């Protein structure tokens, strides 16, 4: 199973600056990462990039560098205190992107010692980057006597990037060029391959989630995790895309999964029946995701998704719609889309989460599972045209995020006024010292 390092874009840029600051001398840095076992392999979530000061080195030159014992002890103490894996990174001046014989010899001496110093509690690794920016990485499991390859470096940013390591021998994804010919003209062949490999979690398989799942299936996305606790009711049929009277009483995730498979029989779909806020094991599946579509209609789900996003470094595209009407007269109607990027900003620091509403929803949830209007137990108005408008904009944001075909020119926040018919970008103040971003980032 493939192993990955996942790192936010700002941290990767800092790492790159540290390692490539001097092309004539080998440079180094330390990565502190939370190790997680996912369903598809090991993932190292980078929490911090720390430079190695010259005073902690015995020497450094064009062919190598040596860390003092005192310098290593400081790094080990930090790893132990925070329960983090230590990944030692260094540059290779020139174009050597594979591990050298000297690297092998040094690791064979250092890694067993490093594992022992951290009580064999978690794995540790090494990372190299050549002067062209090509990377390679590997890790040592507790009690192991040889390393395992790390196959990918996932960079969480705008755009998302998946860098293969030099030891990556994975097969190239094949694309049905006849089916996706018109899209390849827009994304390029590589962009279409990226879409096929991207795993999307959809939280909420209702009015907006069903539209999102079907649009993503048509785009060529082949990996899904669907989470919802609800069943199809007769009143859902006016906006639950693809659902019919025969689906009444079925779980919404099952209906959406069937519709996705009808569009793309190659799609791999995981389904979870339950609320994301119930901590029902979803995180074990979510950790493999590249992007979360948040299509839930309550604040409690939004807060729980935000927590998982920060912990596992996964962007969220939050889709919200709302209509207020009184006896056939619409008072307000519209929607919003928020792109939450770990390492930059979260839904909490974008003022997208209201603690008072969460408290009200908790009280309402004790009575029943009705829809929410501002936290109250009232069935809210809904129409498929508004859902489709907002989801289409969200999917456009997703396309730009993973393929970069629009040059990352899409706004991170979009709002739509249905009455006036205009899409606009509000100026919302961001909390520069968000304790959620700082505390939860990459802790698994």
Q: Could you explain how this protein is built, in words?
A:
- α4 (181-187) crosses α5 (189-197), α6 (207-219) packs parallel to α7 and α6 crosses α11 (384-403).
- The protein has two domains: 4-164, Cytidine Deaminase, domain 2 (3-Layer(aba) Sandwich), CATH 3.40.140; 181-440, NAD(P)-binding Rossmann-like Domain (Rossmann fold, 3-Layer(aba) Sandwich), CATH 3.40.50.
- With 444 residues, it is of the alpha/beta class.
- It has helices spanning 9-19, 69-82, 101-117, 181-187, 189-197, 207-219, 252-263, 282-286, 299-312, 355-365, 384-403, 435-440, and strands at residues 4-8, 28-38, 41-51, 57-61, 64-67, 85-92, 124-130, 135-140, 148-150, 152-156, 161-164, 199-203, 223-228, 268-273, 291-294, 316-326, 329-340, 372-373, 376-377, 413-417, 422-424.
- Strands 9-8-7-6-2-3-1-10-11 form a nine-stranded mixed β-sheet. It has an eight-stranded mixed β-sheet with strand order 14-13-12-15-16-17-20-21, with helices on both faces. A two-stranded antiparallel sheet has the order 4-5.
- Helix content is 31%, strand content 28%.
